[in-house]
Inverse folding.
């Protein structure tokens, strides 16, 4: 709503307002990042937290773990907890710990294979499924949750049909632009 | 204009599209289910069958409704029970937990680690969500040897040491919140269940049980838990010491002493300066993170000494989200391990000048030059829930090993130390020599209590699971701790410990079911000539261990106390008898035991059902009646106990002493509900002695 409201002002003010608004959005976003980046004893980071693919696929998530527990940790002593997902369509499977390595206190691991999410075959194209995931150690140090998502991509046949049906629309837009 | 709109729109679209990637997304629900502590026990009847007791913690900020387990999968092995899936766990409040008891089968119990996955559903805001918790378990044989280390502690004179200012209050509670996890063991019935219930008699006692002393000591405020403990010299002019936690500004603990056999007491606030000597700013120096709690006192007749143990806090510092600010949860770390302080004094010195009667030696967590060699823990770990016992040679100290997470302890571990009584009773000794070891391999080692009166040795028991007791023995003449002995017993139900009071507070659910709450030794002499009706009988060395048991069908409709007696042959033990303190109409729990050598005295909690608010009662085993010695009209709420003691009082009859407490509700203004939560309440400590009637006939 704010954007359409801004567009109603005269042309001189609007660019300035838009610029301010852009800056505000960026600032808010950066501040939000800073707010969630505060150190916990364990911190889980998953760069590629949003993936998409076909129903029935298995999605693999990798990431890093930052250890501020005061002791060196073995990855085999770490385990993952999942929550908040739709149990009818998502099945998590921990990979972490399959290959042991150490994370010294105060350091961040290299990229680790963390877990897989199996997406049920009945998931509808276009739907998005989320899960919270946390990492913990044996003495109950627990990271903040990270939310990951998997989006269900259309089947290839559906995609082809979509492209075909979109072609007249593309032609129409191109024609309008030329007229302008 | 159009161009701007296009640009502006693109910015808007870009910002909203990128926003999820630029900031961490809010969690899907405020429920966070994770595993807490885990206890594992390999069955003695089949080493591929394993009982697993796992704490499911809700670390989030909202209640998880209707938690169910729909799947239990191991990386190798299978789920066996105890019931078919799905299992209904019920709701788990934010910051609370539920204990999940499972039976699984594994290929081998040799220490191999198996990944266990527990999955299921919970409900939040009317919607069903899934959860999936992973936890490795490594069932294996329990250790059979426990390395013993040696240490030295320097004797200190409280009037010749420095007194640092009291440190800031610790950032976690006075005791560990870690549960004692007792997995399901093999079903078995070793002895027929005790057919006779135990009733509650009046505070006036009865013909066979006299209660000559029931003295109100003082109010300790409203500190939870009070941790009562007491010991007595005996006699009309004998010294009695009672210890407790107390609340108030700058106050952590208190002690009251009597020099008239317990008829009157003088209270000493351990955080106050010595009267007339402001340089001594507290009773003992506020070492480490300051005096915590968990005091224990005993009287050693042979040495004519009182021994007093005090637990100190670790030093903590903000670890994350620092400095702490409102609305943001900070975490803390331990920066210096704490100590236990062992002080001693003669009754004569106490009666003469209580403040100047004491000497002490510290058992620090780590080696501290000029203080003590330590107890072998790390600098970022801590100590909790101590206990004392003694033989003719050693004073025994037991303590839980706290892990680096403030407020948490390692499951199934207990440090034991033995201090030379020759050194302690030697007025000229400058140091106290001691040995220590860490017992492991049994889930119930946390918060376990020593056997009182074990002759010439330290004996301590622990539940491996709900049908196996493990007994550790450390003979005074041995430099090592031999392999412990296991004894099977009739299975208890460890899952349903509830006894709601009239105010709705379940005082029993918040205790620590699973630990040995008290233990004592009895000697039955041989009868070489035999009796009139029987053959000669050998002598018996009987060790009785008390622990809580949950409701179990129609035979035990209320939680009760099991007294499990085992007979010793060297350091091996066999089941001797089982005795349940139970009643169909109310619950019993948390029994402490004392021994006269041939009779067992009991202090325990009773409440719920027709008793109502939790009370304390005293009595003797085999009487099938205990006597209520408190008059509480409220429930403190969070904790009960955390422990009780029952000490033999030197006397010409069989006499025991104990400290108990009343919980008294504050005045209830109109419109308020009569609960501690609504209007507050006070804890009033009491000292009680009870006895068999003295023999009055010709001797």
């Amino acid at each position: 709503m704010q954007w359409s409201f801004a567009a109603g002002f005269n042309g001189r003010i609007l660019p300035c307002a838009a610029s301010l608004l852009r800056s505000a959005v960026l600032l808010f976003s950066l501040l939000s990042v800073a707010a969630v980046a505060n150190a916990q004893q364990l911190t889980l980071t998953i760069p590629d937290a949003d993936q998409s693919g076909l129903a029935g696929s298995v999605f693999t998530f990798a990431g890093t773990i930052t250890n501020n527990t005061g002791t060196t940790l073995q990855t085999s002593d770490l385990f993952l907890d999942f929550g908040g997902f739709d149990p009818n369509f998502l099945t998590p499977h921990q990979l972490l710990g399959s290959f042991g390595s150490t994370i010294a206190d105060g350091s961040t691991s290299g990229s680790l294979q963390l877990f897989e999410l199996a997406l049920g075959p009945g998931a509808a194209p276009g739907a998005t499924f989320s899960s919270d995931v946390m990492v913990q150690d044996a003495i109950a140090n627990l990271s903040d949750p990270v939310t990951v998502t998997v989006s269900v991509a259309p089947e290839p046949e559906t995609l082809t049909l979509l492209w075909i049906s979109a072609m007249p629309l593309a032609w129409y837009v191109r024609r309008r632009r030329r007229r302008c | 204009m159009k161009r701007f709109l296009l640009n502006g729109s693109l910015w808007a679209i870009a910002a909203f599209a990128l926003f999820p990637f630029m900031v961490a997304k809010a969690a899907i629900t405020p429920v966070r289910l994770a595993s807490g502590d885990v206890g594992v026990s390999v069955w003695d009847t089949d080493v591929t069958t394993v009982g697993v007791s796992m704490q499911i913690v809700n670390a989030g900020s909202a209640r998880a409704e209707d938690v169910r387990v729909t799947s239990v999968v191991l990386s190798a092995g299978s789920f066996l029970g105890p019931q078919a899936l799905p299992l209904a766990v019920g709701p788990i409040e934010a910051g609370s937990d539920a204990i999940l008891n499972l039976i699984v089968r594994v290929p081998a119990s040799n220490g191999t680690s198996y990944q266990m996955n527990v999955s299921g559903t919970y409900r939040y805001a009317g919607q069903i969500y899934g959860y999936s918790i992973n936890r490795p378990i490594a069932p294996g044989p329990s250790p059979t040897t426990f390395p013993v280390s040696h240490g030295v502690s320097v004797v200190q004179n409280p009037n010749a040491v420095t007194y640092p200012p009291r440190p800031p209050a610790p950032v976690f509670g006075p005791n560990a919140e870690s549960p004692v996890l007792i997995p399901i063991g093999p079903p078995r019935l070793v002895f027929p269940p005790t057919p006779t219930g135990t009733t509650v008699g009046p505070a006036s006692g009865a013909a066979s049980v006299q209660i000559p002393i029931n003295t109100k000591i003082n109010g300790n405020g409203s500190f939870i838990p009070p941790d009562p403990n007491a010991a007595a010299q005996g006699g009309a002019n004998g010294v009695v010491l009672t210890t407790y936690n107390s609340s108030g500004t700058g106050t952590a603990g208190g002690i009251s002493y009597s020099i008239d056999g317990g008829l009157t007491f003088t209270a000493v606030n351990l955080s106050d300066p010595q009267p007339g000597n402001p340089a001594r700013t507290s009773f003992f120096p506020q070492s480490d993170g300051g005096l915590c709690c968990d005091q224990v006192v005993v009287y050693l007749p042979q040495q004519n000494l009182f021994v007093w143990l005090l637990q100190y806090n670790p030093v903590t510092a903000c670890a994350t989200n620092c400095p702490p600010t409102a609305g943001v949860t900070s975490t803390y770390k331990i920066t210096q391990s704490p100590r236990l302080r062992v002080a001693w004094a003669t009754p004569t010195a106490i009666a003469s000048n209580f403040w100047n009667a004491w000497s002490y030696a510290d058992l620090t967590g780590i080696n501290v030059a000029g203080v003590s060699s330590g107890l072998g823990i790390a600098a970022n770990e801590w100590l909790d829930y101590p206990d004392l016992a003694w033989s003719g040679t050693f004073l025994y100290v037991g303590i839980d090993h706290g892990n680096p997470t403030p407020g948490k302890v390692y499951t199934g571990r207990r440090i034991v130390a033995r201090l030379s009584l020759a050194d302690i009773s030697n007025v000229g000794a400058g140091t106290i020599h001691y040995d220590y070891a860490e017992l492991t391999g049994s889930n119930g080692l946390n918060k376990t209590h020593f056997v009182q009166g074990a002759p010439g040795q330290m004996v301590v028991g622990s539940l491996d699971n709900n049908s196996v007791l493990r007994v550790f023995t450390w003979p005074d003449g041995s430099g090592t701790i031999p392999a412990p002995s296991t004894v099977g017993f009739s299975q208890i139900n460890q899952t349903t410990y509830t006894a709601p009071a009239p105010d709705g507070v379940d005082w029993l659910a918040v205790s620590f079911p699973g630990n040995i709450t008290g233990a004592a030794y009895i000697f039955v002499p041989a009868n070489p000539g035999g009796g009139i009706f029987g053959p000669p009988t050998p002598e018996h060395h009987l060790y009785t261990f008390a622990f809580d048991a949950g409701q179990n069908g129609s035979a035990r409709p209320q939680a009760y106390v099991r007294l499990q007696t085992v007979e010793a042959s060297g350091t091996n033990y066999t089941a001797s008898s089982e005795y349940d303190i139970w009643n169909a109409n109310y619950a019993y729990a948390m029994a402490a035991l004392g021994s006269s050598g041939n009779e067992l005295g009991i202090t325990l909690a009773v409440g719920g059902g027709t008793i109502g608010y939790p009370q304390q009662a005293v009595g003797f085993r085999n009487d099938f009646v205990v006597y209520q010695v408190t008059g509480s009209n409220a429930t403190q709420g969070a904790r009960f106990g955390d422990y009780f003691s029952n000490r033999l009082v030197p006397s010409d009859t069989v006499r025991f002493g104990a400290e108990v407490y009343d919980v008294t509700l504050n005045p209830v203004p109109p419109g308020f509900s009569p609960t501690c939560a609504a209007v507050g309440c006070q804890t009033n400590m009491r000292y009680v002695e009870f006895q068999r009637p003295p023999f009055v006939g010709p001797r």
Remarks:
- Chain A touches chain B through 55 residues (CB under 8 Å).
- Residues 80 and 111 of chain A are 16 Å apart (CA to CA).
- Residues 13-36 of chain A form the longest helix (24 residues).
- Chain A has two domains: 2-36, 42-158.
